[in-house]
Design a protein that fits this description.
Layout lengths: L16 H17 L4 E2 L5 E3 H7 L5 H6 L2 E3 L5 E4 L4 H10 L10 E10 L11 E10 L4 H17 L5 E7 L6 H13 L5 H9 L10 H6 L12 H16 L5 E2 L11 E9 L7 E7 L3 H4 L7 E7 H10 L12 E5 L2 H16 L4 E3 L6 H10 L4 E5 L1 H6 L1 E6 L5 E5 L3 H8 L2
Parallel strand pairs: 1-5, 7-8, 12-13, 12-14
Antiparallel strand pairs: 2-4, 3-4, 5-6, 6-11, 7-9, 9-10, 10-11, 14-15, 15-16
Bound molecules: adenosine monophosphate.
């Protein structure tokens, strides 16, 4: 293994591709910020307990994928595998739900860790932007979140994604369905691990990707037929609101998702250009989660969109974001005196809010102009001894190639005018 290799299942974000990641994060956050969601940041690790209770003791995330560690002080911690449990924990700790304004609407952006088998689109360290609306049961809130995710993806130019929608029922109707499903599943020809899953979390058997399992599930009881009237009405309302907003979705009664805490509305955004790791984002309602982690009853809904997979989706659709070059002006000094003078000019430009860079290391004109080109700067400032003696610098338009002498004292104003 090379000394310079990132750990298995991880990768580094380096320029220029890293700029796309920043832009994707900003694009997902923008509609949230415009809709009353406040930014929240929580630690990269939590007590193991939180995820065991919150995400679910029987989920793959907790049983197989969590990075856990014992500190020197004996605390059992886990690197966060997802955002919702942490955000809810933080909101409860800060008593945000008691401040009067429900729902508490929060958005976040950060790194998450799962010990998964790495493949294209599946990493051990990945990044999500998420949103949670805590403390209110209202179908308009579920619809709002789905609409905002749709808006975020569309603002990036993505078109080949689909929204899958389902309702998982509530604490009244889901247990009845669960029992009916268990009775059905126990008669099937399944391996030991799946049999165990039937007893712990039978809904997740429906999510099994294997063809021989799926074949046996054709006649499985459908959750839809077991939804209580309240859940049915709630789900119909969410569907109607999405339709009214012009958001296209597909009903997917097999959608159960890998976390235990979901109730009622669940949804996933899938992208058709990504192969097997097609889920770019997902979420749903989690009315029981607060109580599961020891809090009061706080019906809530949220989602998390994967930044890595969203970038892959952009690449799959051949979308190049219109990212402006960071550097507007690149200074090329010729000689010691010019180095000092031009560095002073660059500092002044930066203070005036004009993005400027400098040819460091005292290189020759040819090499420095190459760097100016690579920087993407719109203008180069070139000055040698003769220019300085005349009190001017040469201002070169890198697009047209045109060059003119500008008095040193007027460079900043001239550039500000030209750059608009
Ligand atoms: P989940 O909490 O599993 O529903 O994940 C929400 C989103 O995070 C997914 O739709 C993916 O876009 C992203 N995601 C989850 N796990 C990974 C992973 N191992 N690697 C990359 N992205 C991931």
């Amino acid at each position: 293994m090379s000394t310079f290799q990132a750990p298995k299942g991880t990768y580094d974000l380096t320029p220029p591709r890293s700029a796309t990641f920043l832009a994707v994060r900003a694009a997902i956050a923008a509609p949230l910020r415009d809709s009353g969601y406040g930014y929240i940041e929580t630690p990269g690790f939590e007590n193991v307990e939180l995820f065991a209770r919150g995400v679910g003791e029987s989920t793959d995330i907790v049983t197989k994928e969590m990075y856990t560690l014992t500190t020197k002080g004996g605390d059992q911690l886990a690197l966060r595998p997802e955002g919702t449990a942490s955000v809810l924990r933080a909101a409860l700790e800060a008593n945000l739900h008691k401040a009067g304004n429900l729902p508490v609407k929060l958005w976040y952006s950060g790194s998450y860790y799962r010990y998964e088998r790495p493949q294209a689109g599946r990493y051990r360290h990945f990044s999500q932007v998420g949103a949670e609306a805590i403390g209110t049961e209202d179908p308009i809130l579920d619809a709002e979140l789905i609409i905002l995710a749709d808006q975020a993806y569309r603002s990036l130019g993505l078109r080949q994604f689909r929204i899958l929608l389902n309702s998982l029922g509530d604490k009244e109707c889901r247990p009845v369905y669960r029992e009916a499903l268990q009775t059905f599943l126990r008669d099937l020809d399944l391996d030991e691990e799946t049999r165990r899953r039937i007893e712990i979390n039978p809904l997740r058997v429906l999510d099994d990707k294997r063809a021989d399992v799926q074949k046996q599930l054709t006649d499985a009881p459908k959750l839809r037929d077991y939804l209580c009237d309240a859940c049915k009405a709630y789900h119909e309302e969410v569907r109607a609101l999405l339709t009214a907003a012009g958001v296209v979705y597909e009903d997917d009664e097999k959608l159960v998702r890998g976390l235990d805490y979901y109730t009622r509305t669940t949804f996933e955004f899938v992208h058709d250009g990504l192969g097997s790791q097609s889920a770019v984002g997902g979420g749903g309602r989690y009315d029981g989660l607060s109580e599961m982690i020891g809090g009061p009853e706080l019906p809530s809904v949220g989602w998390a969109l994967g930044v890595d997979r969203t970038v892959l989706a952009l690449e799959a659709e051949g979308i190049e974001l219109d990212l402006p070059y960071v550097t507007s002006v690149y200074a090329v000094p010729l000689g010691e005196e010019a180095r000092r003078v031009l560095f002073g000019v660059v500092t002044g430009l930066r203070r005036a809010g004009i993005a400027a860079d400098f040819a460091f290391g005292g290189r020759g004109l040819k090499g420095a102009m190459k760097s100016a080109n690579r920087s993407g700067a719109r203008y180069a400032l070139v000055a040698g001894e003769r220019d300085l003696a005349e009190g001017v610098v040469q201002l070169k338009d890198m697009e047209s190639g045109e060059q003119s002498a500008v008095p040193l004292t007027e460079v900043a104003a001239e550039l500000a005018k030209r750059l608009g």
